[in-house]
Design brief:
Oligomer: single chain
Radius of gyration: 19 Å
Bound molecules: nicotinamide-adenine-dinucleotide, uridine-5'-diphosphate-4-deoxy-4-fluoro-alpha-D-galactose
Largest sheet: 7 strands, parallel
Shape: globular
Strand content: 15-25%
Helix content: 25-40%
Distance between the termini: 35 Å
Number of strands: 13
Length: about 350
Amino acid sequence: MSTILLAGGAGYIGSHTAVELLQAGYDVIVADNFCNSSPQSIKRVEMISGKHVPLYEVDIKDKKALSNVFLKHNIESVIHFAGLKAVGESMEKPLLYYSNNIDTTISLLEVMAEFHVHNFIFSSSATVYGTENPIPYIETMPRGTCSNPYGWTKVMMEQILEDAAKADPALSVVLLRYFNPIGAHPSSMIGEDPTGIPNNLMPYITQVAVGRRDHLTIFGNDYPTKDGTCRRDYIHVVDLAIGHVKAVEYASHHTGTEIFNLGTGTPYSVNEIVEAFEQATGVKIKREYGARRPGDIPEFYANADKAKAILDWKAEMGLYEMCRDSWNWQRNNPNGYQI
Ligand code: NAD
Ligand code: UFG
């Protein structure tokens, strides 16, 4: 079976994807500099799967170090998760975001060309639809105007990858636009382990639930939605990971660029998420309403038809599983991978 390189594979989505690829029979190798993750996640992946995962501490920007990984393995496809992803931090440190996210992409493309590796699956984001497209978002819409440098790096990387695929007829690029991944592996051995104060909703909720934070602040209750709080398309990270297995299969039989939304197609409000969490876990979440967070838009969700039609993929798990698994991961690992 072929070997898949997961660049940034020790992170939240990469580690879950590693499990699903191994279970589907692929060999997996991981290259990560652990700037936002721990090698422990891959130890846990090995425990879940019963398989060995070669792990390299490499900055993906470092082409020489990356080439050494390609020399050691017969890589067929690359999945590029290795990016910085904190929206607020990207506004304070735009150059760090542009250089890390874009240089990792170019470095991978160049080393892949050198080793005649043709399949590139990219972690993109619903953020590329920007602020002006109507909802639900569909892949045929133009990329929009982003409200922060993180989003712009995704727009730019999509463009770079499309251009690379136009110039090299052998290249197969799959752009996966994730909506809002939450949840954890049902084994509760791997999950999301943010450093510092979580930016995203679900890790904040689980840290309140486990007693690491006093209360959740809901950013705005005066949006034009039915309960005044923002609505998003939350997707279980295991469903998202399975989407990558389908994308790897697709990429190996196609060339050019193809874009897929990976979402459920159903939005939930912040209040609905908190209530679903309380119902699924029996744990009360202390919360209060605060000011709107700059850059948030009231509502977005996916049209997920294309992934169903072409990849034969759709999200199977609902809000109950997402909340249950987020909580089980957090309560069994109150300090994440830190032992
Ligand atoms: P994560 O931070 O958990 O994983 C990213 C991994 O990349 C980390 O292990 C980090 O150490 C590594 N990394 C970063 N820069 C690197 C470099 N220069 N060299 C080597 N390794 C490097 O994040 P995640 O949630 O797993 O996200 C994975 C990808 O999906 C990211 O590109 C992110 O932008 C994208 N994405 C995430 C979300 C989300 O909500 N989690 C939504 C849309 C898109
Ligand atoms: N929220 C709160 N309180 C918090 C955290 C979040 O009320 O403490 C609210 C936000 O205002 C938003 C919703 O919860 O209305 C979801 O916020 P997240 O930060 O979890 O997710 P976003 O939709 O803002 O963004 C996420 C990723 C982006 C990605 C986007 C689309 O963080 O990187 O999904 O994939 F681009």
